[in-house]
Amino acid sequence: MQPGKVDRQPAYVLHTQPYKETSLLVEVLSRDHGRFTLVARGARRPRSDLRGLLLPFQPLQLSWFGKSELRTLHVADWRGGVPQFAGERLVCGFYLNELLLRLAPRDDPAPELFKLYDRSVRTLAGDVQFSNVLRRFELELLALLGYAPELAADAAGQAVAADALYLCRFGEPPQRVAPIERPPARSCLLPGASLLALAAGDLGQAQTRRDARLLTRLLLDELLGPDPLATRELLTTLYALAD
What we know:
Blueprint (H helix, E strand, L loop, with lengths): L5 E14 L3 E8 L3 E7 L19 E6 L4 E9 L8 H17 L7 H14 L5 H15 L20 E4 L6 E3 L10 E4 H8 L6 H19 L5 H9 L5
């Protein structure tokens, strides 16, 4: 057996780029081995069996070998079940991928993260409201990374009141405030009703989704730093996040 060989691991392709003359570097998210890079040797050759397989948003089963940072793809099998993305759905899918490429740690087994991504891709493939899928993904991703905000209790330890207004900052419980015209930098103002809906996982109302977008953008921007997400800018241009 080859060293470090792994067989038939559920995985998704997050990103590919040319490598040497005929190969590809493939960034993957696997169920039991997390996110890492594979080299797919000869994948760019015209007759390679891999050319039509190593596509984003397609459930795959991968086998590879090697213990170094750059492992070698051995076999890729298509598991089926998800149609090819196009248009706004495609951009939304790339947004999920870009978030994982920027935030998911490398070589960290994360079966719950894989389950979240798999569920989100399959939901996105259906006839759904894209913003709903993205907001759920963002909130659950923040929770899995350990940055889930407190939503049901405020900074004073009191239960959030639906008719009150709250100031939200990264890493802090919401703070109940009187109505103010503009929140301070690196914060957002949200009504208690939206916080309670988000705590219950209820994104049914358009206002809740808009408020969820304010909150997740605030939190994600702290984690992402100064470099903007290319897909977010494109989504904003296409109004794909607007209700």
